[in-house]
Amino acid sequence: MIRRVALACSLAVSLSVVSCSLPRPNHPVIGAKNFTEQVILGELLAQEIEARSGLKVERRFYLAGSYICNQALVAGRIDAYVEYTGTALTAILKQPVDRNPEAVLQTVRRLYASRYGITVAEPLGFENTFAMVIRGDDARRLHLATLSQAAPYAPQWRLGVGYEFEQRPDGLPGLSAAYNLHFAGPPRTMDLGLLYRALNANQVDMIAANSTDGPIQAFGLVALQDDRHYFPPYDAVPLVRDDALRRWPQIGAALHALAGKITADDMRAMNEAVDGQHRDPAEVVREFRVTKGI
Q1: 13, part of any domain
Q2: Number of domains in the chain
Q3: What is the pLDDT of residues 216-271, one digit of tens each?
């Protein structure tokens, strides 16, 4: 009797799981993390796929960080998103830091294919590495251009970081060890979009930002040079599920058309157009595609 009850309960749970599972949409789904550059890149993938295939593309943007996007991709809730090779290598695939861009790309390709059935497409053409950013006035007053030069002043400074950077293996712990960086108290963690506001308001004195952020130039800030070459390469690459490529081969053609088309200056300009000028990301992407002839 107990076995029959257990079997009945097990069957009920299984039926519940099946009935609650979402049906696969009959169109590609593009994802993005929760910051401006990712939304722009997600929109770029979506527009290019729509233009080359006539397919309707669903956007699922603002999916928190790398872990959530990767889980959504592996589970089939999205079909593609743009990742950065160094992030993929260390934060997702849990591999040792490697500073050779081509070696990192090949390792990432091999492991995504073997573990997840995911293709790493050709790089989009730019790198978005971490940038340790300070106010321009501080850089000029103290004559700072590199992280090594800034390290002696760090004990007097407050640090602001995003939630991932504080814990990830290519983030704060390793950077602190590489440069002997020690700050005035634990870092203040906040959403990436709030970092520049906190820096400009003197709530923090250094932030862990991204090298392609528009506000660096717009606010006259200084990104300190990683003179000890701590950070691995962070080339932007689309990740796409193999079953999505089989189902919609046009996706492959769209990704090939975007390969090598975006420079770091292009990305900074688009980021600033959205963040600084408050323009619609879809409009900014359409304008970029016309300018590039894609």
Answers
A1: no
A2: 2
A3: 988 999 999 999 999 999 999 999 999 999 999 999 999 999 999 999 999 999 99
Do 271 and 239 fall into the same domain?
A: yes
Separation CA 42–CA 63 (nearest Å): 11
The reply to whether 153 falls in a domain is: yes
117 and 194 assigned to the same domain? no
pLDDT in tens, 56-114: 999 999 998 899 999 999 999 999 999 999 999 999 999 998 999 999 999 999 999 99
